[in-house]
Design a protein that fits this description.
By secondary structure, the protein is mostly helical. The protein contains 9 helices and no strands. Belongs to the G-protein coupled receptor 1 family. It is found in: Cell membrane.
């Protein structure tokens, strides 16, 4: 019938959108990750900003794989892949990726705030020691989200009847295997272990961003009192890097806030529409998709070095602002 043909055409269109977004995001993050690995291979070290951005790239890839891939398969009618184990795995990877994404962005903004702070500020002691704690902070984030998100798969093992691949059909089509009937203890666990830390990280991120804006404003006022020829290249590079990080953090906060609103709408709607579910996924994958291209656009030597690599078949070692 015409209705079935329209429905099939709609699913195909949505599937193509998800497939395009997923492909572009995966390629972009892979190129950026390869870029950072190449730098580490040639220089045997990474600046703390690049180290954090490398882990942000991995987190973005996890989000795209866990949200974009299952929705693409579902939209294209390949629902046979959604076993109970696959549902739990997609959910686990998605939660770990989202947690690592917000924690990495928060680390980036906080450590950059400490780095650009003047030596006579109350950050002076941390200013020297901060780079040494970057690796350990990233390690803590990975461990925290990897283990804390195991609470939910372990919890649902005792409630197998609440999990079903039907959650990915048109009947309450959520796209992921959320429990249909949430118990109070599940909601409380999720709030304490996931929501509260995310809120605290968001507040810390906004505070760090505000501090960076204030420090940049003070720096600009000081520069106005001296000639431009006396401004050190290092100071100028730090200002450009800080501005890039501010734009990146602002973009993340905007997309993350919008995504959280849509996720809450889906979670607390008895029978969410397909439009709401699809829009939620598209918005959730937007930042992980555009993030690598924004970072590469701020790395002004990337196109020239990569073109040289293509010609000479050498690794693409890049130096840039962030």
């Amino acid at each position: 019938s015409s209705n079935h043909r329209k429905l099939a055409s709609g699913h195909l269109t949505v599937g193509i959108i998800f497939l395009s977004q997923t492909t572009v995001g995966i390629v972009g993050n892979f190129v950026l990750l390869y870029h950072y690995v190449s730098i580490y291979h040639t220089e045997r070290r990474l600046r703390f900003t690049r180290l954090i951005l490398m882990h942000l790239t991995i987190a973005n890839s996890l989000v795209i794989l866990s949200e974009g891939v299952p929705q693409t398969l579902a939209a294209l009618g390949l629902k046979s892949f959604f076993t109970t184990f696959a549902c739990k795995l997609f959910l686990y990877v998605q939660r770990v990726g989202r947690g690592l994404s917000i924690s990495s962005t928060c680390l980036l903004s906080v450590f950059q705030t400490i780095t650009i702070s003047p030596m006579n500020s109350y950050w002076k002691d941390l200013k020297v020691k901060a780079p040494k704690y970057v690796g350990f902070s990233i390690f803590l984030c990975w461990n925290h989200y990897a283990f804390i998100n195991l609470v939910f798969p372990l919890y649902v093992l005792y409630m197998p009847s609440q999990w079903s691949t039907k959650n990915i059909t048109q009947e309450g089509d959520l796209g992921y295997c959320f429990t249909i009937h949430q118990e109070a203890v599940t909601v409380l666990l999720y709030a304490v272990l996931i929501v509260v830390p995310e809120v605290l990280l968001s507040v810390l991120m906004i505070w760090a961003s505000g501090s960076m804006v204030f420090l940049l404003h003070r720096h600009k006022q000081r520069v106005q009192h001296i000639h431009s020829t006396n401004v050190s290249p290092r100071s100028s590079a730090e200002s450009r890097a800080t501005q890039s990080i501010l734009v990146l953090v602002s973009t993340f906060v905007s997309f993350h806030s919008l995504s959280s609103i849509f996720h809450v709408s889906v979670a607390y709607t008895d029978n969410p529409t397909l439009w709401l579910v699809n829009t939620t996924v598209v918005i959730s994958v937007c930042f992980p998709t555009v993030c690598p291209f924004f970072i590469m656009s701020r790395d002004y030597t990337l196109p020239r070095r990569c073109f040289s690599w293509i010609q000479n078949t050498k690794s693409c070692s890049v130096t840039g602002d962030i």
